[in-house]
Amino acid sequence: MTSGRRPTLEAVAARAGVGRGTVSRVINGSPKVSPEAREAVLRAIDELGYVPNRAARALVTRRTDTVALFVSESEERVFGEPYFAGIIRGISAGLADTGLQLLLVIAQSEDEHARFERYLTGQHVDGVLLISLHGGDPLPLHLEENGVPTVLGGKPVGVVPVSCVDADNRGGARQAVEHLIGLGRRRIGTITGPQDMQVGVDRLNGYHDALTAAGLTGPIVHGDFSEESGERGMLELLAREPELDAVFAASDPMAVGAMRVLKDRGIPIPRQVAVAGFDDSSTARHTDPPLTSVHQPLEAMGREMARLLVARIRGEELERPVVILDTHLVARESSLGSARSGGR
Amino acid sequence: MTSGRRPTLEAVAARAGVGRGTVSRVINGSPKVSPEAREAVLRAIDELGYVPNRAARALVTRRTDTVALFVSESEERVFGEPYFAGIIRGISAGLADTGLQLLLVIAQSEDEHARFERYLTGQHVDGVLLISLHGGDPLPLHLEENGVPTVLGGKPVGVVPVSCVDADNRGGARQAVEHLIGLGRRRIGTITGPQDMQVGVDRLNGYHDALTAAGLTGPIVHGDFSEESGERGMLELLAREPELDAVFAASDPMAVGAMRVLKDRGIPIPRQVAVAGFDDSSTARHTDPPLTSVHQPLEAMGREMARLLVARIRGEELERPVVILDTHLVARESSLGSARSGGR
DNA sequence: CGGGGCGCAGAGAGCGCTCTCTGGCCCGGC
DNA sequence: GCCGGGCCAGAGAGCGCTCTCTGCGCCCCG
Predict the structure, then answer these.
(1) Whose CB has fewer CB within 10 Å in chain A, the N or C terminal residue?
(2) What domain range is B124 assigned to?
(3) Which residue range or ranges hold the HTH lacI-type domain (chains A, B) (predicted)?
């Protein structure tokens, strides 16, 4: 089929009866080409099935037309699957008509993390998308210092990033807790996420916001987003506050863990204790009872990350370098239904 | 930090007091370098923070050190999230110490599918991994014809692939149905996957195998792996076989849909009808009751795909170009517990 | 002590593209 | 009618690397 080797730009030029420069101009959409020449070149490209060689182009332009999605997965609990898949779809969609390719880099250990830092700063990609970043990771800083545009998924703890996209974790958590308060709950505990991640801090703050606004306080225990830490957290909450009538878990898996403990103890959900989670993962719809949870627009977040990165690569000034997308509560049976006090 | 531009191989050679060729040999691990020269080169590389330019190398070697993972997601129902994430992790792990980068290509429409076919056959990647392939997709054939090594995740329907990795869908389905038979069930229906996908066919065959071995028959309805098709399938099964005492759904979402219908009808699970699914997704653990399901080793499958592809890229002969990995049943409450006939 | 062979190093070419610079052609103005 | 300017095309250089080929020096053997 392909005779020996793929056709080069030179071959196209020969066939079209023009010079290499003209072919290059046509390919790159330069206006300085006469209609006849353009026509001839396009026909030759078509006839030869010419595809430009990226390596050769990258060599001279110093752009690779590739961006990396870097996922640090040293602790797999952080890396919830629905989150991952949703974000990736959004990114892929956002990149689709930009001509940029997506390189997926999953660092599963510290070693790999270091190796990839070198790789990414080494002129191999035009930009980097980072998700599930851990507290104080210097990677985004190093990248920017080396002139590699970087967009973060999720706010980093501490530093103000050059550009990042996040869900409104604080607002979402606040909504969830306000929802519980609105249902008449008064002794509302929370199981937090890791406090070295901004997302954990934000969701705790949202919880605080709602309680404070209602003049309430409640017990706080710390988890790490995992189902198992949800179980431990629930046990601790019950020990500290036997009169608990609701719990807000900062992730769905933790909510699932909490619900398991409640069931084991024979505590009816939501009659005695209402439960709300965060993520609105597919699991939330299938728990017993179905879990009230905060939905975040994963695909939109991914798309927005791609948009920001592309703009930065093109050297455009960003009007809003930090984008926070709305979250909303999806109320289900784990909180709805009658509470003990109001019960029939 | 970086003064102007990154150091080139030439700069390293100058600093080490050797020629470019020697530096190249050191980098590529050629044995034909004296220890002293190698030492000097390595020091210079370290001092300069030299990172080879991939584009320049790719241009001359005609290898890109990049493989693509191509996901055709035109119908999103097929592309279950846990499947995706698990496989990717395996692939990433399998590629980790090969120096190959992973390009993620998600074709969300027919247009993109066609565009990427051109891209992938156009010397941009050294090999391609394909997952969730649809019946009769000519892409793998085209790729191989163009000399691009390809490894499939999941057997294609019809043609015998050059190399592919799959789970033992038939065996898994058979195990699940044997399990139901072993529990005393005799009127076992199935909701199949799409029959234009080999995975759908295999799981139906496994169901057949088990029934035939036990001298039974049962009603078959066709679904498309989606939750909604599981609901429809269950309704149809109940209509066709009111005495049904078990159902094997070829995917977890379909099993979930089926369970919803059973619950709506007030049919106790598993007392009257036992349910088994396929995938052992995280959802399976959280349904009510928890779902018996067939587990497939996703990460191992991904790793195996990577291994096969790397071997093919290196031109090694494959001893077993088609790898089928074992599946096993995870029995949970949706099938365990007492059946009607046996009382409690 | 001389010649042949081997092993390591360096010079040169070239991968396929872009980009700059020069040149040719045509048109308009004086 | 001649010259200047604008516009499009092509030639040339060079991006950073690999690979081949030549050459040099050393060692070993006769």
Answers:
(1) C
(2) 66-167+298-325
(3) 7-61
